[in-house]
Amino acid sequence: MAHKLIILGAGESGIGAALLGKQQGYDVFVSEGGTIKDNYKQELAVNHIPFEEGHHSWDVILGADEIVKSPGIPEKTELMKKVREKGVVVISEIELAYRFSKGKKIIAITGSNGKSTTTALTYHLFKTAGLDVAMVGNIGVSYARQVATAPAEYYVIEISSFQLDDIVEFKPNVAILLNITPDHLDRYDYKMENYVASKFRIAMNQTKEDYFVYCMDDPEIMQHLAQQPIYSTLIPFTIMKPLKEGGSIANEQLQILVDGEPVIMSMYDLALKGKHNLYNSMAAAIAGRTMDIRKEKIRESLASFKSLEHRMEYVTTVKGVDFINDSKATNVNSVWFALESIEKPIVLIMGGVDKGNDYSAIRDLVKEKVKAIICMGVDNTPIIDALSKDTPVMISTSGMMDAVREAYAHATKGDVVMLSPACASFDLFKNYEDRGRKFKEAVKAL
Q1: Any residues with CB less than 8 A from the CB of 28 and at least 6 apart, and which?
Q2: Binding residues
Q3: CB atoms inside a 10 Å sphere around CB 82
Q4: 77 DSSP assignment
Q5: Residue 266: beta bridge partners?
Q6: Is 3.90.190.20 the CATH classification of the domain at 313-444?
Q7: What is the pLDDT of residues 287-330, one digit of tens each?
Q8: How do residues 111-128 score in pLDDT, each as one tens digit?
Q9: Known binding-site positions for ATP
Q10: Looking at the domain covering 4-91, what would its CATH class be?
Q11: Which of helix, strand or coil describes residue 231?
């Protein structure tokens, strides 16, 4: 009898897990409570993987040998309670992918914020050094899909706490924990310590041969380390004082010390600006050093890194107002990261084809940081209904030119106007790239 693998949730991680499971000879079935995107449906059909959408067949699911659960499904759901009662083994897609990529080098990055940037930067560093590396996880292609379709020698993985909740053997050679701030506490019984413990699972299987890279300036991390020892080799980073081992700042220079010769470069040569990016740059550089990447390559990478086009891409500054193109943010989660990373007041341009978005995830950040929302789409009702109580100004426009002009009119010196749509683009544009380019054109025409 083939191993019965049931995948709950058909997003990128669920589809990746299905492809890998099928490739490894498992008997795979995908169950999605909502609707499955057309491109994913096609992939399942082409690969002869049976699926259901719009409901869950409990009897089928409870008959599984093993379940891969999407990170988006909370434990509180009726279905998960039944699964736990029955005692079916539940793993995350990360765990499944790890099972079939043992012996490869894994750099795993988690934290409440800065994950995407640090992941992209670490990938850039390994790529610049000429290594066979893939960037996977929350930042694009799922880890399982990569293992199934284009396996690499090195994996740089962005991991959320939800993905860590269901690992069993997953063990990165380098685990990076950037910071821990209260986030998603609804999934952790509103207990900060549960959320912290969940982040620390990234190191739970590590041994002395592995590295745990962490921010010394984060009180939650330090408190947890004091109470719960970790068995891996610890490498801290800080901006508060020089260190003998790890990453630190002295005389406006970044210093990375890992086994031997230091990597030293001026803070002003770093491609990424801002305090939070000092931490991200140190973490990536430490990961590079643990893998013996030459210091010239590390310096070169930290200086040459470009944030991805249409992903928090700085366009220009007009009369003290910064314009940022984050057109790639086609879901609410991406907008959360975008809002989270900006310190200045924000005028947010959003809208497009709403795929049944749940905007509750960004409500707190909108309340805290967004002074106006400019909607741009054929139908802006979902955004207006969801967020109008959380921001003082909510305006509807029907195209990019109008949206940019309205946003500029509501911004004052020191603000940021950001296109971060949370929606697909095909009501007004060909794709998110086209939308991002139209935004840049409209900004330049101001």
Answers
A1: 5, 6, 7, 18, 21, 22, 49, 50
A2: 111-117
A3: 14
A4: S
A5: 253
A6: yes
A7: 999 999 999 999 999 999 977 677 788 889 999 999 999 998 88
A8: 877 788 899 999 999 999
A9: 111-117
A10: alpha beta
A11: coil
